[in-house]
Each structure stands twice: as structure tokens, then as C-alpha cells.
């Protein structure tokens, strides 16, 4: 297998050259910090793109980690599979192609870590559908929740983004007001919502 760092570097270059939306360099340390803290065994990723974050998660999780990752685009899934197959994690990462909202409902078992980085307007729907699949101590991390500063900033939101911004505000309210979770909004990058499920006796 190729050296992991070289493979990741190649993927970063591909992402830059082809304008593929992989997690940005300011958001990535937060993702890795949370994964290293959690050391998850079973991960669900919504939004594979080229497999960049799936590989980073795999490399920082428990030794027995298994990852299900959902991708709408067959083309991107094929690129992701080609990269993943060059890594030591090729047998640990499964790519499910198609609409994420539909594919979540086909999954079984429980996940202790969920990373959401797909269609921003679907975040509330994703969370509601993922909820029954969460372990009692699960962590859910959603990227881009501050969306270019429009979600919490004072700047006027362009009309084309109004629905996305509305849904991201709904997502933040959904996870922040759920007393089963403690949610922190990290302002790194484009904003990440980190929602840690609390032990039942601590639910507020």
C-alpha cells in the first residue's frame, strides 16, 4: 500500500485542481481532533466526494473501524473507490451510491460517529433519519453549518442561498435544543457543529 501521507497529498491536489469540495484546511483539524478523541468503531459519512475525509477518519479511528459513506454521484464514487483501494483501509470503507436521504433508511446497526458534509439544505432531514442509528454515546459532526458567514452573520444573504441558510439554522436549532446532546458550534473553516450525545442520566 502507498504511503498514507503521499496519497492524501495527491487527493488534496486533485481537489484543488478539479474544484472538488473536500473539507477545508481550517475545518479538517477539528474533524481530526474529534475523531481522535472519540476513536470510533463504526462511522457513517454523508458525502463521500473523492474519499478524502473518509480516509482521514479511518486513519485516526479505532483499529477495527468500519465506515459507511454515502455519495450521490457515481463519477465521484468511482474516483473515491480508486483512491481508497490504494490505501490500507480498502476493506473497511463501503461506498453507497445514490440519494443519501434514501440510503440512510437502508442502513442497519449502530454508529458511534457521524460526519455530515453533503447537501446543506438536507441537514435537518439527515439528522432525523440518522438519529435511530446512533449509539448511546454517539457524536455527530456537521460541516459548513455557518455557510460563508450567512447563518449567524449580519451580511445580507443572496436569494439563491436563502433556503440553505434557513435549513442550516434549523439544523443548529434541532441539535442545540435536543437535550440528549451537547452541541458546540466551532467557527473554524466554514463552521462545524459538534454534537455529543450525553449519558442518559445527564440528559438535560
Q: What is the arithmetic mean of pLDDT?
A: 93
As a percent range, the share of strand residues is 15-25%
What do we call the CATH homologous superfamily? Vaccinia Virus protein VP39
CATH class: Alpha Beta
Q: How is the largest sheet built, in terms of strand order?
A: 3-2-1-4-5-7-6
- Compressed to H and E, one letter per element, the order equals HHEHEHEHEHEHEE
Q: How many separate domains make up the residues? A: 1
Poorly predicted runs: none
Largest sheet at a glance?
A: 7 strands, mixed
Global outline? globular
**Total strand segments:** 7
Radius of gyration: 16 Å
The percentage helix is 25-40%
Any guess at the CATH architecture?
3-Layer(aba) Sandwich
Structural class, please?
alpha/beta
Termini separation comes to 47 Å
InterPro entries: SAM-dependent_MTases_sf, SAM_O-MeTrfase
GO molecular function: O-methyltransferase activity
Keywords: Methyltransferase, S-adenosyl-L-methionine, Transferase
Pfam families: Methyltransf_3
Description:
The model has no long low-confidence stretch (mean pLDDT 93). By secondary structure, this protein is an alpha/beta fold. The relative contact order is 0.15. Helices cover 36% and strands 22% of the residues. It is built from 7 helices and 7 strands. The chain has a 7-stranded mixed beta sheet with strand order 3-2-1-4-5-7-6, with helices on both faces. Helix 2 packs parallel to helix 3. The longest helix is centred in the first third of the chain and has 15 residues, at 4-18. It has one domain (4-202): Rossmann fold. Strand 1 (42-46), helix 3 and strand 2 (66-71) form a beta-alpha-beta unit.
